[in-house]
Design a protein that fits this description.
Layout lengths: L1 E4 L4 E4 L1 E7 L5 E6 L6 E5 L3
Antiparallel strand pairs: 1-2, 3-4, 4-5
Length: 46
């Protein structure tokens, strides 16, 4: 799944993805940028 990396300032394919539920009960996906190792986040179904 792709997400925007704030550090690289580009869309990248996330690694180590996991589905989570936010506090407001919406689904989201959390992962890691393969280039810089920064946490990436994407709201919506995974």
């Amino acid at each position: 799944m792709q997400a925007y990396c704030m550090k690289c300032r580009a869309k990248k394919e996330m690694t180590n993805t996991k589905s989570i539920i936010m506090k407001n009960r919406r689904p989201a996906t959390q992962g890691v940028c393969p280039t810089c190792g920064t946490k990436m986040f994407r709201i919506g179904k995974s």
